């Protein structure tokens, strides 16, 4: 199983974390092989096996995993006792201070974000594509750390996994106009009358604006479309699986 570890989060022995790739599971083409999502048309039993394999690799109870029905919103859900593996909430970020409760975000071009506060021992995961970035889900997550768990932004560590890069994320005039309307025109690259959006640049700016320290940020420069052999990419493949970011306090 090919997993990517964060250099930042490797410093904390009380964390279990990983960013998955598309390798190491049992799903068949076009979901080959470590697809972790049920909603994409894959065989549900194979997805279940993939989750079992990942839980065994990382050493957590599969049924304790909390994931989401992601809806391209800026909604943050604080995990409660009733949450479980089988009934995901409709939201795009999860946050908790509960131990042995792994949180998962699934992506296939959007950015997976993992957050950790080592002072208050709180974790969060978030899903941010163009919609989430334009709606500033990052601010909502940081605000939740502050308001619900008495955290301070400068104590947050954030890892952002692979996502579609500005090299490949072509958007239309309407997206460019929307970006301009909310002050994000600097994140759009124009080339030969085509527009390309840099979501990673938006997220980095938003994290810094929220008070996260630059040295506490780790942002992947890998493009999921360019590196489709390693990651699922909806833009590249259309019908495809989902890779994931996972974070747990031990």
Can you characterise this structure?
The protein is an alpha+beta fold and 250 residues long. It has a single domain (3-163, 216-249), classed as CNF1/YfiH-like putative cysteine hydrolases (4-Layer Sandwich). The chain is built from six helices and 15 strands. The chain has helices at 44-58, 130-134, 137-149, 173-181, 199-209, 234-237; strands at residues 3-4, 15-20, 68-69, 76-78, 89-90, 93-96, 103-107, 111-117, 122-128, 156-160, 170-171, 188-191, 194-197, 217-219, 243-249. It has a six-stranded mixed beta sheet with strand order 4-6-9-8-10-14. A hairpin with a 2-residue loop joins β12 and β13 (194-197). The longest helix is centred in the N-terminal third of the chain and has 15 residues, at 44-58. The chain is globular, with a radius of gyration of 17 Å. 43% of the residues are buried.
């Amino acid at each position: 199983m090919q997993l990517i570890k964060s250099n930042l989060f490797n410093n904390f022995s009380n964390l279990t974390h990983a960013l998955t790739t598309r390798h190491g599971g049992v799903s068949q083409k076009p979901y080959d092989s470590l697809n972790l999502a049920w909603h994409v048309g894959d065989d549900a039993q194979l997805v279940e096996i993939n989750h079992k394999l990942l839980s065994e690799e990382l050493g957590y109870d599969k049924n304790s995993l909390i994931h989401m029905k992601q809806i391209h919103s800026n909604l943050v859900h604080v995990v409660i006792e009733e949450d479980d593996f089988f009934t995901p909430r409709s939201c795009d970020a999860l946050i908790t201070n509960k131990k042995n409760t792994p949180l998962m975000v699934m992506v296939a071009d959007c950015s997976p974000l993992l957050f950790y506060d080592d002072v208050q021992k709180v974790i969060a995961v978030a899903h941010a594509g163009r919609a989430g970035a334009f709606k500033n889900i990052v601010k909502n997550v940081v605000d939740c750390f502050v308001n619900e768990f008495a955290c301070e932004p400068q104590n947050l560590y954030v890892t952002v996994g692979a996502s579609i890069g500005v090299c490949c994320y072509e958007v239309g005039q309407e997206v460019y106009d929307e970006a301009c309307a909310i002050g994000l025109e600097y994140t759009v690259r124009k080339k030969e009358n085509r527009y390309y959006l840099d979501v990673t640049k938006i997220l980095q700016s938003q994290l810094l604006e929220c008070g996260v320290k630059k040295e506490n940020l780790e942002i992947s420069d890998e493009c999921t479309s360019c590196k489709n052999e390693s990651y699922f990419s909806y833009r590249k493949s259309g019908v495809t699986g989902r890779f994931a970011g996972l974070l747990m306090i031990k």
